[in-house]
Amino acid sequence: MGLVLSRVICNVVGSIYPGYMSYKAVTTKNVEEYMRWMKYWTVYSFFMVAEIFLDFFAALLPLYYEFKVVFILYLMLPQFKGSDTVFNGYLAPLLKEHEDTIEDNVGNLKARAMDKATGFGTEAMTATRRMAADSLLSVSSALASAKAAAEEHQAAKAAAARNSENGNDMDAIPPAYTADMSHDKKTVLDTLVNRQRMYV
User: What backbone phi and psi angles, to 5 degrees, belong to 67?
Assistant: First the structure.
């Protein structure tokens, strides 16, 4: 039996049947069965953590994978009551001895996690606000540019209209539209006509 097969058997056998029996204990409100399966899940969870390291260091031992399957069956089957034996004889006394240290470490980890989460949330909010402000500034700048372009367009049309009414008077031509004109009168008039056509 190899690593993959033994892990599949341990996970399937050690989870599906005990999970169903735990469901039955809860729904039937059987306190004795409920306590039994709570002890099983406690032992099983610690075994699953230990298995991560045992698979690296104890895998070379003969029949190691077979032993894991047998151990799960020993914990699970009511004939042996292995979970009661392991929990009451080994795990519970060990946890009780170090309970204060475990509580302190868990409290410290929760506090650190809350600080990290709070700091991350603050940074996320700050970044979101900065992005929103930048977006608003970009939109405002784009609207201002569009407004200025529209006003320039209207001014150019009005200047072209006034220039047409005034007999193509050079003084009525906006500077922006005379910068590219020649000093030759014919060129100036042609340019005015072209400008007028663009805005009509």
Answer: -65, -40
Per residue of the chain (200 residues), give pLDDT as tens: 566 777 788 778 888 989 999 999 999 989 999 999 999 999 999 998 888 888 777 767 778 888 888 999 999 988 888 999 999 999 999 999 998 898 888 888 888 888 887 877 778 788 888 887 877 787 778 788 888 888 888 888 777 777 776 665 444 445 544 444 444 445 555 655 555 555 44
Residues ≥6 apart with Cβ < 8 Å to 187: 181
Query: Contact, 173 vs 166, CB < 8 A?
Result: no
The secondary element (H helix, E strand) that includes residue 166 is none
Q: Which tokens hold the place of 24? A: 């039955």
Sign of CA dihedral 161, 164, 165, 168: positive
Measured CA to CA, the distance from residue 149 to residue 164 in angstroms comes to: 22
DSSP 125-137: HHHHHHHHHHHHH
Cα Rg, the chain, nearest whole Å: 42
Extract the tokens encoding 38: 């709570």
Q: How far apart are CA 103 and CA 117, in angstroms?
A: 21
Q: What is the DSSP letter of 91?
A: I
